[in-house]
Amino acid sequence: MPPLFNRRPEPGLSAALPLVPMPLAELLVRVRQTVETRFAESYWVVAEIADLTLPRHDGAHCYLVLTDQHVTGRGAQLKAQARATIWSQRYQQLAPAFLEQTGQELRPGLKVMLRVQVKFHEQYGLSLDVLMLDPSYTVGDLARQRLETVRKLEAKGLLERQKKLALALGPQRLAVISSPTAAGFQDFVQQLGESPYDFAVTLFAATMQGTDSPSSILGALDAIRRRRSAFDAVVIIRGGGAKTDLLAFDDYGLAAGVGSFPLPVLTGIGHERDEAVLDLAAHLALKTPTAVAAFLAERLARLDAVFSGYADRIREVAARQVEDADDLLTQAGRYVHRAAQTQLNGHRADLFQRIREAATVPRQQLQQQQRQLSRQRHGLHRAARRALGQQQQQLRTLGRTLAQRFRRLHRRRREQLLRRRYELQLAAERLLHRTQLRLAQLSTPPFPDATALARHGYVQLITDHHQPETALQPGDEVRLLLPSLTLAAQIVDRTPHLAPSLVPPVSSAPTP
């Protein structure tokens, strides 16, 4: 083989000829020749199938992605990866024999032993040609680890604990664990923005792939746990990826943390075929982030429809009561009218009878009877109108009462909802404020005494009632002790401040 011309000259020797660059194609041809010479034989290797593309028609080939992984305390880590090919004719021989002896087809996650031959192509790089398959290696390391993790979670009852939690009827305060730059998070926010409902989304940034992903997600869950009263649910989302990118979601610690979390956890990891252990431990597992957003919007739509149905039902009941009262009033009016008409007809018949019987009675008595009859008729009409007016007044009073009761009930419900919302906001702010104060107290080193503070230019705060500094509020009167005088002051505002960590020690020797 001719020497490489772009090699550096050895020390002490001058380069007689200028360096001649080598074309990339020539370099890769030499690499291929070296590989063919050095790796002319075939080799038995053990690897796991991370990805698999089966032949879609007769004459097509089978393409694999083989990985070599090892298990650490945080899960499986990728050590090596290579492309492999089972050519069509050989696949038609190996696949049926593998299925017959193992009872399952080739699939991602299987750890197999296969005989390969190393190939190198100038354009397509390094690949392996699969010559034989050993059916004794059929269960992949990833599948065994996943099965052990699921069994441990099931033994501790962490697979069903999340599913026993009640998801809020209208979950709108969402704590989202995702990468801020992930396309899945952007799709999730866009899907929620397109819905007619207002969602409060708080992002807790975390690493969503790699070995640091489980600890990062658990850290986000711990941050949410301290503010769990401010959220209705937790959403863990990421975009799609290869199977090797989803190994972090089979971590036992992460699945146990989700299974024991006090709030319902929804997952949308972004894989269509595989199901991670995290999905099994969550309250609800959906395929993609947009599916999670669609589920939340649909849940609020169903709740909105239920409230609309209640409002329609209330209107129907009120309208039915008004109609019933109207029918009752109409029937009462008809009854009064019939009674008055019957009474009038009776009086008229009695009058005619008396006229016939007392034909000889003087005209004055007849006129008196006519006046009495007229007064009774007018009285009956007035009584009928009065009864009709009373019924109408009662109907109007009943309608106003129903309307006032409905408005009062609606206003009371709205005030309760607003009061609950303000209480939750106030509780969240108080909790955040207490946490900030606690952090400030924990991180603030102790101050030296007043003499040392005065010597180094500090000011000592003196209160009248010997109150601690943490109990002082805006408006309290205090005194400031300076090296040479004392000033009276009033507190206007409180701002947490971290004192300097180092103060020169005070010497015990007397000053000259």
In short:
The protein is α/β, with parallel strands linked by helices. The chain is built from ten helices and 13 strands. The relative contact order is 0.06.
Describe this structure in words.
- The chain is of the alpha/beta class.
- The chain folds into four domains: 116 residues, Beta Barrel (OB fold (Dihydrolipoamide Acetyltransferase, E2P)), CATH 2.40.50.140; 143 residues, Rossmann fold, CATH 3.40.50; 95 residues; 33 residues, no CATH class.
- It has ten helices and 13 strands.
- Strands 1-2-3-5-4 form a five-stranded mixed beta barrel. Strands 7-6-8-9-10 form a five-stranded parallel beta sheet. The protein has a three-stranded antiparallel beta sheet with strand order 11-12-13.
- The radius of gyration is 44 Å and the shape is elongated.
- The N terminus and C terminus are likely disordered.
List its traits.
512 residues; alpha/beta; OB fold (Dihydrolipoamide Acetyltransferase, E2P); Rossmann fold; 5-stranded parallel beta sheet; 13 strands; 18% strand; disordered C terminus
